[in-house]
């Protein structure tokens, strides 16, 4: 009898641990929308580059050191912005990468993001293989064919997709790994910053129209953050290693202003479309300007792989990162920590300031 009781006690402990781990791995709540499709770059890539011959990969420690599944390919110590938003939307797990999604998994959405990707096809080519925004859109078109096959007909697929949220966060690399890399690219000699922003928006809008033509109706267009304040920009271009680089941030804001105009244009011209803009620039600038308000203490350097005279831009494999990672805004030379991503994702979902989202936030978009 005693042996039997011990056996049941052991089984109960094991089951309890399993449940606790499952709740840690899974996000709780009923989804507010049936699916969430994600397009972007390394800020939201969750493993699509893992099999690529590329320097833009994060499938090794210390990346993912604080994520339940360890180094999945996320360029952070833990969750990304879209992981946070998925939690707020009530999904029971994070959205799978295009590289891993299959069968009925795609009905709850797919993450197509690829590190080093840009709006322009050549962007990031010096880093190796990646899937440009155009390539990601093509992958989505392929997914739609699968959705039609699973649900049985085009009408059912269209009804399903129009309820989903589509998040697009692309353009950072068109500056970081294109325009401001004159040794590799001609764009800064061919275009003024104003002309370049126009060229990017023109190509961007073509891809957005394809998404719309293939069922997307609720679209989140994410602005570019203040790239000139990243540890890499400070190390490479700031005279004192502390002051944000104005010429980079100015160019980013030119793009963002056109993105807001694009939201207005599409809302007026595309039937049944609901576009919103997330002001990542303003939200992230708030973190940098008022770190104590968010309990951050380190704003100018990354937790790993960064130094003023260090050309290293990502964490070295198995490098020991900083201890107090929740006090850092940046994880490496470009990417935020999980703590910063949670702040940005939360404010994108539920705006804390009138300037966080336009014309409204993701929470309201989900209800429409």
From TrEMBL:
InterPro entries: GDSL, GDSL_esterase/lipase, SGNH_hydro_sf, SGNH_plant_lipase-like. One of its GO terms (cellular component) is extracellular region. Keywords: Hydrolase, Lipid degradation, Lipid metabolism, Secreted, Signal. GO terms for molecular function: hydrolase activity, acting on ester bonds. One of its GO terms (biological process) is lipid catabolic process. It is found in: Secreted. The keyword Lipid metabolism applies. Belongs to the 'GDSL' lipolytic enzyme family. This is SGNH hydrolase-type esterase domain-containing protein.
């Amino acid at each position: 009898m005693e042996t039997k009781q011990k056996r049941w006690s052991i089984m109960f402990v094991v089951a309890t641990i399993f449940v606790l781990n499952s709740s840690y791995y899974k996000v709780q709540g009923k989804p507010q929308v049936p699916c969430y499709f994600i397009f972007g770059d390394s800020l939201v890539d969750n493993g699509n580059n893992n099999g690529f011959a590329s320097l833009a990969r994060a499938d090794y420690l210390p990346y993912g050191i604080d994520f339940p599944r360890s180094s999945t390919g996320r360029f952070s110590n833990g969750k990304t912005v879209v992981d946070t938003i998925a939690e707020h939307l009530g999904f029971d797990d994070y959205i799978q990468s295009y590289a891993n999604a299959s069968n009925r998994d795609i009905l709850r959405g797919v993450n197509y993001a690829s590190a080093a990707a840009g709006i322009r096809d050549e962007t990031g080519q010096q880093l190796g293989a990646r899937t440009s925004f155009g390539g990601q859109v093509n992958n989505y078109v392929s997914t739609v064919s699968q959705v039609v096959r699973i649900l049985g007909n085009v009408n059912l697929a269209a009804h399903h997709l129009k309820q989903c949220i589509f998040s697009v966060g692309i353009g950072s690399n068109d500056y970081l790994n294109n325009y401001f890399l004159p040794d590799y690219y001609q764009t800064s000699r061919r275009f003024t910053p104003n002309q370049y922003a126009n060229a990017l928006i023109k190509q961007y809008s073509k891809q957005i129209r394809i998404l719309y033509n293939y069922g997307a109706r609720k679209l989140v267009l994410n602005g570019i953050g203040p790239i000139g304040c990243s540890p890499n920009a400070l190390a490479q271009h700031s005279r004192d290693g502390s002051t944000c680089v104005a010429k980079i941030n100015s160019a980013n804001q030119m793009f963002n202003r056109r993105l807001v105009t694009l939201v207005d244009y599409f809302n007026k011209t595309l039937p049944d479309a609901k576009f919103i803009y997330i002001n990542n620039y303003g939200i992230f600038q708030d973190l940098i300007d008022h770190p104590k308000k968010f309990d951050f203490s380190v704003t100018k350097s990354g937790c790993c792989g960064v130094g003023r005279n260090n050309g290293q831009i990502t964490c070295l494999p198995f490098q020991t990162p900083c201890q107090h990672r929740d006090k850092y805004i940046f994880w490496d030379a470009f990417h935020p920590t999980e703590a910063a991503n949670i702040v940005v994702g939360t404010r994108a979902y539920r705006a804390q300031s009138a300037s966080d989202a336009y014309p409204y936030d993701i929470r309201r978009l989900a209800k429409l």
